[in-house]
Amino acid sequence: MSSSRNRRPRAPRRRDRASQSSFPLSPSDNPSARHLRVQSSLFQEVSLLFRSELSDPRLEGVSLSSFELSPDGRLVRIGYTLTPESAASGTRAVQEALERASGYLRSQLALHLDMKRVPQLRFIYIGVAERRPEDPGANGEGGEQ
Fold it and tell me: How many independent structural domains does the chain possess?
């Protein structure tokens, strides 16, 4: 009975400390070197597959901008942006195309990476990518001179 009295007051303090320290930091607090290595290799492989293997026309104008592996390694959240032209036609078709492609991407990850479990891929729309200032200037400079 005395052991249960000792445990009860400590549990709320642990939660308070954990919630205070994890709130301003990333969701994975201090990821291990292995976690970062797995996240990096997943990001490189998904990026390569995204550029070279996917041929869905609805995915033109999509660029991957963020990549986060969950602490347990079961889920990857991939943030993407759209060009203004792609965003004008709507994000629903792009999201559906990404959801359809996620199964293929996971199967390719299983073939290319030596992992026990390939994580689920969840694509999250971040927003419209800003145009680079040098793009409009490059078009105007060539014709004048």
Answer: 1
Domain-located, residue 48: yes
* Distance from the first to the final alpha carbon of the chain: 89
Rounded-to-integer distance, Cα 76 and Cα 120, Å: 6
Which structural domain range is residue 99 located in?
Answer: 33-130
pTM score, two decimals?
0.67
At position 70, the amino acid (one-letter code) is: S
Number of CB atoms found within 10 A of residue 28's CB: 16
The predicted model gives 1-8 an average pLDDT of 54
Res 7: pLDDT: 54
Task: Tell me how far apart the alpha carbons of residues 116 and 35 are, in angstroms, rounded to a whole number.
Answer: 14
Task: Give the SS3 label for residue 63.
Answer: strand
Closest CA to 105 of 120, 85, 83, 126: 120
C-alpha distances (whole Å) from 34 to each of 19, 25, 60 are 24, 19, 33
Within-domain flag for 89 = yes
Q: Which amino acid is at 31?
A: P
Q: Is residue 11 part of a domain?
A: no
pLDDT at 25: 41
CATH number at residue 104: 3.30.300.20
